[in-house]
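agent> fetching stored inputs for the iron/sulfur cluster docking request
agent> found them:
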Amino acid sequence: AIDPNFETNREKVGEENGVAVWGPVDPPEQRGIHGTHVAVDYDICIADGACLEDCPVDVFTWVDTPGHPESEIKVEPTHEDQCIDCMLCVDVCPVDAIDVDPG
Ligand code: SF4
Ligand code: F3S
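agent> prediction call returned; pasting tokens
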């Protein structure tokens, strides 16, 4: 599962699609955690898609991650600023790849 303390335990290494990326990253196999308020661990996500389908405010967008061992697409929390903290995405993800931090 995603580390809920990633902001302490990892370092921000850059941005992709306007979203913070928390390392380590070593593409294509290791892509880090994407987002801050709504965070997706790209190295855990298997592209199930339930988060994107269920989010009531369309926070997520598909992006390509060719060569990643778990899945070749991932969800980017592109509109994490719109999140209403409903926690649906956290609850439906089958591999616990998402952390939402109300507060
Ligand atoms: Fe969307 Fe709710 Fe997840 Fe926020 S917590 S990203 S509003 S599903
Ligand atoms: Fe990935 Fe979980 Fe969403 S596997 S696509 S973060 S439901």
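agent> quick read of the result: The pocket of iron/sulfur cluster (ligand 1) is lined by residues 38, 54-57, 59, 83-89, 100 (CB under 6 Å).
agent> awaiting further instructions
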